[in-house]
Amino acid sequence: MSRVIGLTGDEAAAYAAKQSNVDVVAAYPITPQTIIVETFSEYVFNGEVHAEFICVESEHSAMSACIGASLAGARVFTATASQGLALMHEMLYIASGLRCPIVMAVANRALSAPINIHGDHSDMMGSRDSGWIQIYAENAQEAYDWIIQAFRIAEDHDVLLPVTVNLDGFILSHSLEGVEVQDDEEVSRFVSTRKPLFRVDPDRPITVGALCLTDYYFEVKRQQVEAFDKAFQVIEKVNKEYYELTGREYGTVDVYGVEDSEAAILCLGSTAGTAKAVAKNLRSKGRKVGVIKPWVYRPFPSEDLLEAVKGLKALAVLDRACSFGAPYGALCSDIASILYRNGSDLKIFNGIYGLGGRDITPSDIKVIFDEALEVARTGTVKEPIKFVGVRE
Amino acid sequence: MVTLKELTVEELFTSGHRLCAGCGAGIIARMTLKALRRPTIIVNATGCLEVASTIYPYTSWRTPWVHVAFENAAAVASGIEAAIKALKKRGAWNKEVDIIAFAGDGGTFDIGIQALSGALERGHDFLYICYDNEAYMNTGIQRSGATPHGAATTTSPAGTKIPGKPEFKKDFIGICAAHGIEYAATASPAYWNDYIRKVQRGLAVEGPAVIHVFSPCPLGMRHDSDKSIEIARLAVQTRYWPVYEVENGKYKLNIKVPRPKPIEEFLKLQGRFRHLFKPQFQHEIKRIQEWVDENWKRITELCGEA
Ligand SMILES: Cc1ncc(C[n+]2csc(CCOP(=O)(O)OP(=O)(O)O)c2C)c(N)n1
Questions:
Q1: Which ipTM did the prediction report?
Q2: Which of B40, B78, B127, B197 is deepest in the core (most CB within 10 A)?
């Protein structure tokens, strides 16, 4: 059974963790994630969960403690943002390298300097290659749903990779929404408890984190690559079971109105919500535009994305982070790569937007759709990279 | 005091590791594992002990052993301890275990002090052992906050103008004791039964305990490898390394040194101090002796011995 309750994105994340039989949470406050740690602390201090909450002295120690707890066989959850994620950076690679299936909510926020507390994706994009599965939520509902599913994906023995569920700072973290939540009992059955493949168990002593030099390191990394490949099947299986339980359907890519469209916007997270609303309006006036939103950014769902863009003539890829000195933003570079690999002649351009929480409005989105339709009509891209909404 | 006969013959830290001959860390690890009271999980910070004992696919450890990084042994231990508590609550862990974190002086005095302070403040039940070879030996002998005044390292070389490290050593046990933990102690591997008693005491504490143990290093301190224990003993007999413990804030001197040897006896066996014996730097030896005397006075006063 489900019911609808009012939750902010952060509260939804904490609520999902609470229902997911988490054993250990080690976390450190940072805006706009803080509500997650605060909410979870309340669960612990009111005796609503069996979890141990380690209120660490830094994010570096948060992730270190998460790794220790995960290696002991615990189900582990944490949350951070921005500078906190950056401070964890070293540990992110160790969590994935030691195959710790930790689940982390990231309330995306801009990176300093200049210091700024508002939302963009530069934090997660800065840790893009750290070996974590990366999921982006469009709203609080998706944050809730993905966090529950993330435990199943992370802990699957074919995967054993940590997962981040990203929710846009403030836009999602602090906005109250009606969220459809399942009964505790249902979620508990869905996620069960963690069944570790190995753990630091005195009955079967193992050495974890040994020195691996030129003779073995590469194979260890190759296994991580393989785990990312295998993750697709596991994600599909988990999405299917979750759909059966909740009626809410997920996949690696969310599409809106692309079947008959000539042009589309491709973006991550909450901006897709705005884009869908604008597309709906334009479509009602007979303009053929759609929206593509990768839910899963790593592993990159190349096949599903190629399928989604099949009939398009133009695609605007929006990045909410700068990749300084690079040919495109990170997301657009990935899209360009798969299109090239597939011999596609789809015309693309890149919109860099929303840095430091700068709003992206429906009229900004409409301008991008107009431009995309123009590219579809003429077959030429005039401006490969646009900075949307910045004062030049 | 434990006797040799009471020690287990079981070797949980086995031979075959690649530590140097005469390395204090190996001796300390082996002694520590002979002092265990029950199954124990080891957390090891990056450093010589970690690197030389677990070169994949080999390991010297017959206990569960975890290495995560350089600066976070205490935080990793916190996580393991919390996990075991949570798993016990839901019936997924049913044995009593101890947790020991090993880290060098770099991983403790410098880069790891924050994680350690946090773990001590939160009160996790684990024993933290800092084996102090007085420099970053694993990366080729760079200075740390534990390197003594005058010692030559690769980042505090014996220059023609500045003769080795200008600064003095941190009061590490003072810092730990200031957290209000139940047990903190210093030790030297030359006094093995004192060390073993302290490991046992530290493990018995419910909550965090810290041991700071002198760790000779033939390569980094530049001494003969058969002199390791002699140097560890001279460290105590010159009063350079006071052996004491702090129990619930109360200091107690464990090894009295009524007739201390001059500090030269300790210094002269080690190449890292050789430059101090040149005529132009001899005054530095006097400064070290003064530091030793002052430190001894301070500690013994705290111990109520003075
Ligand atoms: C964050 C980080 N900085 C630097 C290093 C490089 N590093 C590895 S071991 C080490 C020194 C270790 O010194 P210490 O803790 O005294 O232990 P020892 O090697 O002397 O046993 C350094 C600097 C690292 N591994 N991680």
A1: 0.97
A2: B78
